[in-house]
Design goal:
The chain has 16 helices and 20 strands. It is α/β, with parallel strands linked by helices. The strands form five sheets. A nine-stranded mixed β-sheet has the order 12-13-11-10-9-8-7-1-14, sandwiched between helices. α3 links the parallel β8 and β9.
Length: 410
């Protein structure tokens, strides 16, 4: 397989929060005080390690900090196309801390002409002064965790901000110079009606952000919402209503000039999230921080289909491992050809453009249609997928039933 030399994405995970939302199953914790300086030092050590022999565990899990094999990347060889600070709540960190990480990344890697640098921000974690400072250090894209513009639903979700806080954050971000702002919204909240959801969409569209991400609330195990659901104390809107909410989203957002480019993501022309597109198009990325994942398509290790590795999720253990061993990687997976094929299908179908059948055949040396001859005709007949101009893609109905479609290929 031909080695890729395109730019990479870099994800920086900040796992700390003021409070833990009852639906959240992300790697995040609530602590006070936050060990900000120690965590930043650990991040800098990890970033620095990528231009030295980098210890990775063998296939599967290893003992904490056990050194197995090395990955070496020549300093400045790979260009960074995007940097994404996620969490947790990365906006809890000081502007100086965030600037130190950006500077370290830029010193270890080369950069493209325009690096997209995104910071996730929750209301009540930034004021006008901080937003202006973030803009000054090079943050050029914000992702605002709004979720709803109605206080009752923010309370239902366990959010600590109000609708007024959300609107003020957006206005302050605009006034600070940001011209690329994304909003996150959640639908399918307990007790939410179709009219309620339309009101949230209308509020979002009135603000005219460049990007809108819309997520259907799902209840995951090991969350307070899961326990409440098991006890019958939390009930989500029925499936038919959730489908109507999603269809309403597509209609209203399209009418406002946004293009849907992924199942959950809508953007004004020219404002797609480049970092997330990298995930969906199988571009390489490095993840720094507690619990972060990394992916390379081809290395000196066995196999031509790439490797993934992940860091230890506990931030205190992450800090300790970086201090003592210079690495926090604890688990690695060598991808097989079959794994790469199915991943290409799963991620490709999430994009509205779908999968280029020619590109698929060039990469894997097989026809997608012939390889899945027992799946593709059935999905075509059920109007869940279509083949248009050489691309296999989800139909509108297929998007609504995307999980069922994906399972047919697995």
């Amino acid at each position: 397989m031909k080695k890729r030399e395109e730019d990479i994405g870099i994800y920086v995970h900040v796992p700390f929060c003021i409070s833990k939302c009852p639906y959240c199953d992300f790697n995040s914790i609530v602590v006070s005080p936050i060990p900000e300086e120690n965590y930043i030092k650990a991040l800098i050590t990890e970033i620095d390690s990528y231009t030295k022999p980098l210890a990775l565990p063998f296939e599967g899990k290893s003992a904490k900090g056990e050194l197995k094999e090395s990955l070496f990347l020549e300093k400045g060889k790979r260009a960074v196309g995007s940097i994404y600070f996620g969490g947790g709540t990365p906006s809890l960190f000081s502007v100086d801390s965030i600037a130190r990480i950006i500077d370290k990344i830029m010193s270890e890697f080369s950069s493209t002409s325009h690096v997209e640098i995104t910071l996730e921000i929750n209301p009540k974690t930034s004021d006008m002064e901080k937003l202006q400072a973030l803009y000054t250090i090079g943050i050029n894209r914000l992702s605002l965790g709004i979720q709803s513009f109605q206080d009752i639903f923010l309370q239902n979700l366990g959010r600590i901000h109000t609708s007024a806080d959300a609107v003020n954050l957006f206005k302050d971000a605009r006034s600070s110079g940001f011209s690329n702002i994304g909003l996150d919204l959640i639908f399918g909240i307990p007790d939410q009606t179709l009219d309620d959801w339309e009101r949230d969409l209308s509020c979002a569209l009135y603000l005219k952000p460049e990007h809108i991400s819309v997520y259907n609330l799902t209840i995951e195990e090991d969350t307070p919402f899961y326990d409440l659901q098991e006890e019958g104390k939390v009930t989500l809107p029925d499936e038919d209503l959730q489908v109507k909410m999603y269809r309403l989203t597509q209609e209203k957002v399209a009418a406002a000039g946004y293009e849907q480019y992924e199942i959950s993501n809508f953007a004004l022309p020219g404002f797609r999230c480049r970092h997330n597109e990298g995930y969906w198009t199988l571009k390489e990325y490095f993840g720094f921080g507690a619990g972060a994942h990394s992916y390379l398509t081809e290395t000196s290790h066995k196999g031509d289909w790439g490797i993934r590795w992940k860091n230890i999720p506990n931030p205190y253990e992450y800090i300790s491992l970086l201090s003592n061993n210079g690495t926090a990687a604890i688990e690695r997976e060598d991808l097989t050809r079959e794994m790469a094929i199915r991943e290409a299908i799963f991620l490709g179908l999430r994009r509205l453009e779908g999968i280029s059948l020619d590109d698929f055949e060039k990469r894997f040396g097989i026809s997608l249609e012939k390889t899945f001859a027992n799946v593709v005709p059935y999905l075509l007949k059920e109007n869940l997928i279509s083949i248009d101009e050489g691309h296999l893609k989800l139909t509108v109905q297929g998007i609504l039933l995307s999980n069922e479609v994906f399972l047919k290929f697995f």
